């Protein structure tokens, strides 16, 4: 949540800051701002409510140019989205701060600073940071020391960037609980919430650790740990290309990302399956031995990633034969957990930075799980770094806030895990070979489903006026229905709920009328007949059904029953295949409703606060 970027250079950094913000906009987009130190070492600031483009157009008429600067794109936590609450926050024209995170003791600090004569201009928790730094500067501390002392009084999570007229050639950054990277350039250095923000400027990065404070100038980056000791952190070269996040010919990132799924799945499988087998090496050097002793699995994740975990539970229990529990991270982390011996702890996260998932992982490490495995899309992320083993999805950068290719690649990766565990629990080589074959065919199958887009677009027209929708599935397709409903909610603002269709008669049937579209996924599996009776229950009550059904399913279109045929799909991979039409349906409904598809209101892609 919130994105920060900063630079110290011999050139004007305003364009670097704006481009960085553009690339970080997925983290939050209710307001944005930047502050630079100009040639006479004075602070210039510009802030705007709304998207980065508002800030960019304001820049055309205001000269905000300097060689040292910080910038921010906001996702409101404390204080409404407004120019007044937008970052950077400034104290007495002398210090400017950008912040990502939440300062939990901000009320106490605010009271104390008010008594010391500091005026507060915003409702944010962040503003205490800038006044506190100012107070320490006033006491004669250097900028670095002032930030260091300020960090000691802050409780909560933060990543901050600080500049000041007191030392106009410096940029100080600190992190505790929120992500922050340092980008290393030639006689110029940068900070940002993630690597994407800076790939146009550099490929070399340092990942700050919790408690680190970095002192950046054009010539040097000095890092100190939480005890104030100078430390050397490893420099990583990223392979991310600057154009990896371009939208190309597509109207929205979400549409591009839906269409990238066949390739993303192919990449996720690349080098991990061979000759009908899943290679143990896929999980890294520590997993092979650890997996030998696994007796059960605990999965923890949020949002779409949680839905991937729910699908995996069906697979792990039915194919690998191990008990599996799945929980949303925000619940898991605050609950007293009993850890069965030999339990593998799996986190699933696109970003690898979701605060609750990361906190749950840290908690799990204390609780004594047998091994920790992250299924993640961002190699440099905190969750990857905190986990003993990792299985990277290779979806590439996902920009659309509504997750699509991250989900289907997570499911692909999870199937690899299911086989790796299953082999240790009696999964026969022929079964393994069959699953591997289905995985190999998956990209082609998804290509075929993508061809349904025109027909789905026509269906979407009938959803534009609706206020509610119900999604139904059974077995592993219940979480698929949940994911479909989530997509519709997120981007079209239509209230959508998913139910395992057997539960219909326990409540939701009361809602059914002609105004309530009911979307169902009907793969050809052993629950088909049961699903069909559930659908008849809907039809009999005047509900309008929209069914995605396997070509082999004996069902006909009829008044109140709209049918789209999905090519023959094997049961094991069906949850991955059937997700795609639901993504397309949500996308096209959102187009009709005219919402901001890639950046839906109130949401952010990466939730780095609780
Ligand atoms: C946010 C995003 C979702 C995502 C969830 C978990 O809510 O909008 O798309 O599924 O966070 O994120 P993660 O990066 O951990 O998968």
Question: Explain this structure to me?
Answer:
The chain is an alpha/beta fold. It folds into three domains: 235 residues, Glutamine Phosphoribosylpyrophosphate, subunit 1, domain 1 (4-Layer Sandwich); 181 residues, Rossmann fold (3-Layer(aba) Sandwich); 149 residues, Rossmann fold (3-Layer(aba) Sandwich), CATH 3.40.50. Helices cover 35% and strands 23% of the residues. An eight-stranded antiparallel sheet has the order 3-2-4-1-10-9-11-15, with helices on one face. Helix 9 links the parallel strand 18 and strand 19. Helix 7 runs parallel beside helix 13 and helix 9 runs antiparallel to helix 16. 55% of the residues are buried. The mean pLDDT is 94. Bound molecules: 6-O-phosphono-alpha-D-glucopyranose. The site of 6-O-phosphono-alpha-D-glucopyranose has 15 residues, from helix 9. Keywords: Aminotransferase, Cytoplasm, Glutamine amidotransferase, Repeat, Transferase. Catalyzes the first step in hexosamine metabolism, converting fructose-6P into glucosamine-6P using glutamine as a nitrogen source. This is Glutamine--fructose-6-phosphate aminotransferase [isomerizing]. It catalyses: D-fructose 6-phosphate + L-glutamine = D-glucosamine 6-phosphate + L-glutamate.
